[in-house]
Amino acid sequence: MDVLLVEDEPLLADQVQRAFSRAGHELRVARDGPSAWSLLKAGRFDLVLLDVNLPGMDGFELLSKIRDAGMPVRVMMLTARSEVGDRVAGLKGGADDYLTKPFAMEELLARVEVLGRRNVAPENQVVYKVGDLSMDVGKRKVHRGDRRIELSPREFEVLEVFMREPGRTFSRDEICERIWEREHEYDTRTVEIFIMRLRRKLDRTGEESLIRTVRSVGYVMKASS
Ligand code: CA
């Protein structure tokens, strides 16, 4: 797994770098937003660990550049425990995950290992279809009609839950368990933000949303009839 750490605090950056090299992962470190952006444009990374407060360009600004450019990289925001607003802002801005500071190195590594396993494309080339929405799991591509829809890795996983079983209603808790497994501190608010992000990308104006809300139960995907 090729990982980019964007962190301006030297002590923390060194700790993470040592832990990653012991675990056999490639890790590059950028100390500010602009140099992180140069590295991202030049190389291919699987995961960005992104601090919020950075010199030059803050974490949210860098996140929006990454998503605007359609880079298929996972982004895990490193947010302060006290700053709940940062976590929500990061998720709304296109982050796939978050980890609150201070964190234990074992926990960071465990989460990175889980993400690494998910990055391996399945051998069978499954294509799911719901109405005019299609998802090619092997190629990691989603189309609505002829329109290609760019999804972040985690948006793709959330959509896949619905595409595998169209017509089935999923509760927020169920979606949490499927996507975040035993990862810590996920909550149903996170699910709501991902549904909002998917709707913004998938839906056409004036039509009913593909992912419908089932009041006080959860969500269901249905093609409009
Ligand atoms: Ca910082």
What do you see in this structure?
With 225 residues, the protein is an alpha/beta fold. The chain folds into two domains: 117 residues, Response regulator (Rossmann fold, 3-Layer(aba) Sandwich); 95 residues, Arc Repressor Mutant, subunit A (Orthogonal Bundle), CATH 1.10.10.10. 41% of the residues lie in helices and 24% in strands. The protein is built from eight helices and twelve strands. The strands form three sheets. Strands 2-1-3-4-5 form a five-stranded parallel β-sheet, sandwiched between helices. Strands 6-7-8-9 form a four-stranded antiparallel β-sheet, covered by helices on one side. Strand 4, helix 4 and strand 5 form a beta-alpha-beta unit. Helix 2 packs parallel to helix 3, helix 6 packs across helix 8 and helix 7 packs across helix 8. The longest helix has 15 residues. It is globular and about 55 Å long. It starts with a strand and ends with a strand. The relative contact order is 0.10. Calcium ion binds next to loops.
Short description:
With 225 residues, this protein is an alpha/beta fold.
Shape: globular
**Average predicted confidence as pLDDT:** 89
- Please name the fourth-level CATH homologous superfamily of the largest domain: Response regulator
Q: CATH first level of the largest domain: which class?
A: Alpha Beta
Please identify the oligomeric state. Answer: single chain
**Second CATH tier, the architecture of the largest domain:** 3-Layer(aba) Sandwich
Q: Secondary-structure element order, as H and E?
A: EHEHEHEHEHEEEEHEHHEE
Q: Helical content, roughly? A: 40-55%
CATH fold descriptor of the largest domain = Rossmann fold
Q: Strands of the largest sheet, in order across it?
A: 2-1-3-4-5
Report the radius of gyration as a whole number of Å: 18 Å
Unreliable segments of 5+ consecutive residues: none
Largest sheet: 5 strands, parallel
Bound molecules: calcium ion
Total tally of structural domains: 2
